């Protein structure tokens, strides 16, 4: 990411991609709303993910499970016991922060995943790490902070009515494993994909939409027989990389990082994170975890339901193992926008902002532009016709140069200009976003040309 986060965020706010949440009331910390252009990219991104990991996959099916679940789900999954972060406060300025992040931000080469509170405290004291806000080295003891949002279900607000907002979509898949396997008569290996909101009461949300408390995840839980010799973990790492290439994320801007055994989450046997090189530092974009049989075993134990799978060939009962590729929609969107944002010098004293997003993801595929006000009617008719087959916008305000810049800035791959010659030759000019080259084409040939070039 060449440009500062601030510059990219400013652009996204002014162009209508993302707005601060509840802005007219002064906002709500780290809550963001996706505007008309942002939501178009998100819809396309989710559709592409769904197509790749669910509809077009030989193995997988989809699910949409509820956000609120029986509390025993969170006991079995370990979230009620283990899902917490090490929290400390600066005694001088009262800033609250994650102890591990305090260290990692000062020493980017250190990864404290898996350190216990004593190790974290000793390191902070030995290195005399100061509060990043006021510079004091005067912290409270570290305590564990529960990350699940708690609310009450029903009219009574007592211990028994407590429910939690799910912190991941995965558990909805595990508790439905038997339902899906039986009703669809699925044989191993098979996977279940889900897209949905998750909630985590993060101690230090931030970096725009990188870490928020309400976010959306796209998760796949892939179930397989542990006796299967196929290396499914590598297979899904590879599939994720192929997907990232399909959506146009530059491979030089991310790295694969294997977790050290000590930093593995309580459920994981192995994890590889795809980390994107954001301008504020390298951060997890997509986690691929080998969850072994942890989830189905644990849910079998807690629910007293048999979640094993009967192998029809061997007649053997096994607990399937699970590979999980999991990614946040907002994080992936941020990586894509950062990856494609460019300020290009054009000519001596001129520059343009251009969003070089894949045409598969841009809010609009085409902008129809009348050269003069006198041509508005004809151009609008062309816009209405193209709207049947393409995601189009129509822009008649400002001089032609400004309109091209505006479309470059929101990533529209093609601008179609209707001019006075169009009235007689039934042709238009097509301008390419990236090369800025223009060609003349008969209106009758437009749909075929655009379909070919927008693939
Ligand atoms: P981190 O270390 O950044 O807190 P994590 O390891 O807790 O992430 P997972 O539980 O593996 O994250 O979640 C899977 C994916 O969900 C992450 O790779 C990320 O893309 C996304 N994600 C997790 N937490 C958040 C959040 N608070 N805001 C936005 N996206 C998130």
TrEMBL record:
- GO terms assigned for molecular function: ATP binding; bis(5'-nucleosyl)-tetraphosphatase (asymmetrical) activity; glycine-tRNA ligase activity
**PROSITE patterns with a match to the protein in the record:** AA_TRNA_LIGASE_II (PS50862)
Q: Which GO terms describe its cellular component?
A: cytosol; extracellular exosome; microvesicle
Q: Which cellular compartments is it found in?
A: Cytoplasm
Main localization category: cytoplasm
Q: Which reaction does it catalyse?
A: tRNA(Gly) + glycine + ATP = glycyl-tRNA(Gly) + AMP + diphosphate
Pfam families in the record: HGTP_anticodon, tRNA-synt_2b
**Which residue intervals define the domain Aminoacyl-transfer RNA synthetases class-II family profile in the entry?**
146-363
Sorted alphabetically, which keywords does the UniProt record give?
Aminoacyl-tRNA synthetase, ATP-binding, Cytoplasm, Ligase, Nucleotide-binding, Protein biosynthesis
- State any GO BP term from the record: glycyl-tRNA aminoacylation
Positions bound to ATP: 200-202, 210-215, 284-285, 328-331
Residues given in the record as substrate binding sites: 98, 168, 215-219, 324-328
Q: What is its EC number?
A: 6.1.1.14
What's the superkingdom here? Bacteria
Tell me which InterPro entries the record gives.
aa-tRNA-synt_IIb (IPR002314), aa-tRNA-synth_II (IPR006195), aa-tRNA-synth_II/BPL/LPL (IPR045864), Anticodon-bd (IPR004154), Anticodon-bd_dom_sf (IPR036621), Gly-tRNA_synthase/POLG2 (IPR027031), Gly_tRNA_ligase_bac (IPR022961), GlyRS-like_core (IPR033731)
Give yes or no: UniProt keyword Ligase: yes
The EC class name is ligase
Q: Which HAMAP family match?
A: Gly_tRNA_synth_B
Q: Known NCBIfam families for this protein?
A: glyS_dimeric, PRK04173.1
Q: How does it assemble?
A: Homodimer.
Q: Which family does it belong to?
A: Belongs to the class-II aminoacyl-tRNA synthetase family.
Q: Which PANTHER family match?
A: DNA POLYMERASE SUBUNIT GAMMA-2, MITOCHONDRIAL, GLYCYL-TRNA SYNTHETASE/DNA POLYMERASE SUBUNIT GAMMA-2
Q: What does this protein do?
A: Catalyzes the attachment of glycine to tRNA(Gly).
Q: What name has this protein been given in UniProt?
A: Glycine--tRNA ligase
Q: Could you tell me which species this protein originates from?
A: Spiroplasma syrphidicola EA-1
């Amino acid at each position: 990411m060449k440009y500062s986060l601030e510059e990219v965020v400013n652009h996204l706010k002014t162009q209508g991609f993302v707005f601060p949440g509840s802005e007219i009331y002064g906002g709500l910390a780290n809550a963001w709303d996706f505007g008309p252009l942002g939501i178009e990219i998100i819809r396309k991104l989710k559709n592409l993910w769904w197509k790749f990991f669910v509809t077009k996959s030989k193995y997988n099916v989809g699910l949409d499970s509820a956000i609120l679940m029986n509390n025993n789900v969170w006991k079995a999954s370990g979230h009620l016991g283990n899902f917490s972060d090490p929290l400390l406060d600066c005694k001088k300025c009262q800033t609250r922060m994650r102890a591990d992040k305090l260290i990692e931000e000062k020493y980017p080469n250190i990864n404290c995943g898996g350190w216990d509170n004593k190790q974290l405290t000793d390191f902070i004291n030995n290195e005399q790490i100061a509060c990043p806000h006021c510079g004091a080295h005067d912290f409270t003891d570290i305590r564990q902070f529960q990350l699940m949002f708690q609310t009450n279900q029903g009219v009574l607000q007592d211990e028994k009515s407590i429910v939690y907002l799910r912190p991941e979509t995965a558990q909805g898949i595990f508790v439905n494993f038997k339902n899906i396997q039986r009703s669809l008569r699925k044989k191993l290996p098979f996977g279940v994909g889900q897209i949905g909101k998750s909630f985590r009461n993060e101690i230090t949300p931030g970096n725009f939409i990188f870490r928020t408390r309400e976010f959306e995840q796209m998760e796949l839980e892939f179930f397989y027989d542990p006796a299967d010799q196929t290396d499914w973990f590598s297979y899904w790492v590879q599939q994720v990389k192929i997907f990232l290439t399909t959506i146009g994320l530059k491979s030089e801007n991310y790295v694969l990082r294997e977790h050290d055994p000590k930093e593995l989450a309580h459920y994981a046997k192995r994890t590889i994170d795809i980390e994107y090189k954001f301008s504020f530092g390298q951060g997890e974009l997509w986690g691929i975890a080998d969850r072994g049989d942890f989830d189905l075993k644990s849910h079998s134990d807690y629910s007293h339901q048999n979640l094993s799978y009967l192998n029809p060939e061997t007649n053997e009962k096994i607990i399937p193992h699970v590979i999980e590729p999991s990614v946040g929609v907002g994080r992936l969107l941020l990586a894509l926008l950062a990856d494609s944002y460019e300020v290009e010098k054009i000519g001596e004293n001129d520059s343009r902002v251009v969003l070089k997003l894949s045409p598969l993801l841009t809010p609009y595929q085409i902008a129809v532009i009348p050269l003069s006000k006198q041509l508005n009617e004809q151009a609008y008719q062309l816009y209405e016709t193209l709207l049947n087959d393409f995601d189009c916008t129509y822009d008649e305000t400002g001089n032609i140069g400004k309109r091209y810049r505006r479309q470059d800035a929101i990533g529209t791959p093609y601008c179609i200009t209707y001019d006075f010659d169009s009235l007689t030759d039934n042709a238009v000019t097509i301008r390419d976003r990236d090369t800025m080259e223009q060609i003349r084409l008969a209106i009758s040939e437009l749909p075929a040309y655009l379909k070919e070039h927008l693939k």
